[in-house]
Design brief:
The complex is a heterodimer.
Chain A: H1 4-14, E1 19-24, E2 36-42, E3 45-52, H2 60-64, H3 72-76, H4 84-99, H5 105-133, H6 138-158, E4 167-168, E5 171-172, H7 180-203, H8 206-212, H9 220-225, H10 230-234, H11 242-245, H12 266-288, E6 309-316, E7 321-328, E8 336-340, H13 342-348, H14 350-354, H15 362-369, H16 373-377
Antiparallel strand pairs in A: 1-2, 2-3, 4-5, 6-7, 7-8
Helix pairs in contact in A: 4-5, 5-6, 5-12, 5-15, 6-7, 7-12, 12-15
Chain B: H1 3-13, E1 18-20, E2 26-30, H2 32-44, E3 51-59, E4 64-71, E5 79-85, E6 91-93, H3 102-113, E7 116-118
Parallel strand pairs in B: 2-5, 6-7
Antiparallel strand pairs in B: 1-2, 3-4, 4-5
Classes of the chains: A alpha+beta, B alpha/beta.
Chain lengths: 378, 150
């Protein structure tokens, strides 16, 4: 990676008068992980942002080439650790599609409920951290109060709070915890009574609004061209919700709205995520009382073999479109596996939306992209 | 558009293209020299493929295959464009002036597979260290220190 002398040498070559290059990260309180930004400034105006990645590159794609189709799912939990359940789901869907495994209805319902709980937990953490980046410390505790209930539900059901690993090809690893429905309903009641507090505390806060409105504007054309997905693209008016466009599991049976804002600024991205949490609650409410009885896993062979060919599956994580691309030679391990991670594409737009703005606005632009660094580095 | 119509349309743009319909989506294999004009037309022409959602490379030991997954936000049809490149001197033209997302994705392919993208504005290593030797996602890559084979 870059060392200090090299950077100084680089700037002298640029030679423009009044330019200053600063290193933001890898250890920076607002980057939430080891992201290194080399920011070129002219006064307080950002001229260029260059991300330097790879501090937690673990070569997951290469590792997966030597893991079997049952094993590689667990590695994907370590990529986007805030939506690990949805990452697992994407991989399981690919194997089920490739081997034509019929998943029991019970498993499908539980998978969707847990996916939506994961989405809420991820957005809650983002909300708290984002407000803290902008100097508001209190929302962090408010957001974690609700998030804690979800992680408790996850711990009871999946045995883990962050890297769930609850999904296996064909269904689920084990059946639901007996208290699951009761606890989820308690969470819904709690969340609904508390979500208005966010509006008073953050949304209607004049300081928060003036720091995010009109900051980091991204147009719809640029969002598509940069491959942005998830709340980032939807805040620019691009319809890109995989749950609506290519419904998987039981998303075609439930009613929910795709949240679309058109302003394209940081505030719109904030609004999209808050509204999405309410839509997730709506989905869970429709499913929680209707979980069918029956098997939670389909009968599969011990050793899974994907037929020769190429497979692609995609799911909507909390950050956008997560894609898995596998080239199979017919063996027990994939020949090549590629993870299309939403954070990678969303990061590539950072220079575009923040250049020309102020250094103080960089936190507002970057915070609303919701970057998770292990997802980008892989 | 149906697959037959797409095939007909692409045959007029790139006569040497071969098609494969065994997978989920239509696969189109083109010559690397014919890739750029075809991609430019797919973006601006009748197909309006404005969303490039995945760029990657596969090492088949005899050759490398560049894989581009294309879709459109209007009609939502996905197609896959492939181009085989030589393993010893892999060169292909960049598409990052057509889709901006390709800039980072191609930099990743460059460092992991050693594919050179001509006319790329900033072709440097993105994830790996600057002095890293070798192309780790190729099948013959051996790393004596950090074993990643199990």
């Amino acid at each position: 990676m870059y060392n200090q002398t090299e950077i100084i040498k680089d700037t002298s070559e640029l030679g423009a008068e009044g330019e200053l290059v600063i290193n933001m990260g890898p250890q920076h309180p607002a980057t939430h992980g080891v992201l290194h930004l080399v920011v070129t400034l002219n006064g307080e105006t950002i001229k260029k942002i260059e991300p330097h990645l790879g501090f937690i590159h673990r070569s997951i794609e290469k590792m997966c080439e030597s893991l079997t189709y049952r094993q590689f799912i667990y590695v994907t939990s370590r990529m986007d650790y805030l939506s690990s359940h949805i990452n697992n789901l994407g991989c399981a869907l690919l194997i089920e599609k490739g081997m034509q495994i019929e998943v029991p209805d019970r498993a499908k319902y539980i998978r969707v409920i847990l996916s939506e709980l994961t989405r809420i937990a991820s957005h809650e953490l983002w909300l708290g951290a984002m407000a803290m980046d902008l100097g508001a410390f209190t929302p962090f505790f408010y957001a974690f109060r609700e998030r804690e209930m979800i992680t408790d539900i996850m711990e009871d059901t999946c045995g883990a709070r962050l890297t769930m690993n609850y999904i296996v090809p064909g269904g689920l690893m084990y059946d639901l915890h007996p208290d699951f429905q009761k606890k989820v309903k308690a969470f819904i009641t709690q969340f609904k009574s508390k979500v208005t507090e966010y509006e008073d505390l953050v949304t209607n806060n004049i300081i928060f609004q003036s720091r995010t409105k009109g900051v980091g504007i991204l147009s719809a054309e640029d969002a598509i061209s940069y491959g942005c997905t998830g709340p980032v693209a939807r805040a620019s008016g691009v319809s890109c919700d995989i749950r609506k466009i290519y419904p998987y599991e039981v998303y075609d049976k439930v009613e929910f709205d795709e949240v679309i804002e058109t302003a394209g600024d940081s505030f719109a991205r904030y609004i999209v995520r808050v509204k999405e949490m309410n839509q997730s609650i709506r989905i869970i409410e429709q499913l929680i009382d209707n979980i069918p009885e029956g098997d939670f896993v389909a009968k599969t062979k011990n050793v899974l073999k994907l037929p020769k060919g190429e497979f692609y599956s995609r799911v909507e994580t909390a950050r956008g479109e997560f894609g898995v691309y596998i080239v199979s030679e017919g063996g027990t391990t994939p020949h090549r596996i590629k993870f299309r991670s939403p954070g990678f594409s969303n990061l590539s737009v950072l220079n575009h939306i923040a250049a020309g703005g102020m250094i103080g606005d960089l936190m507002a632009s970057m915070g609303t992209l919701d970057l998770v660094i292990p997802d980008i580095d892989r | 558009m149906t697959n037959e119509e797409i095939k007909e349309y692409i045959s007029t743009l790139a006569p040497a293209a071969t098609f494969d319909e065994t997978g989920e989506w239509l696969n189109i294999l083109v010559d690397p020299t014919a890739l750029k004009p075809l991609m430019a037309d797919l973006r601006t022409g009748k197909m309006q493929m404005n969303y490039l959602f995945c760029v990657t490379c596969v090492d088949f030991k005899t050759h490398l295959t560049m894989v581009y997954h294309l879709s459109a936000t209007t009609h939502r049809q996905s197609i896959v464009i492939k181009a085989n490149v030589n393993r010893d001197t892999p060169v292909i033209e960049t598409v990052c002036d057509i889709w901006r997302t390709a800039e980072f994705l191609e930099r990743e392919v460059f460092e992991m597979f050693g594919v050179n993208f001509t006319n790329h504005p900033d072709l440097r290593k993105l994830i790996l260290e600057d002095d890293f030797k070798g192309f780790p996602l190729r099948k013959d890559f051996e790393d004596p220190i950090n074993m990643i084979k199990l």
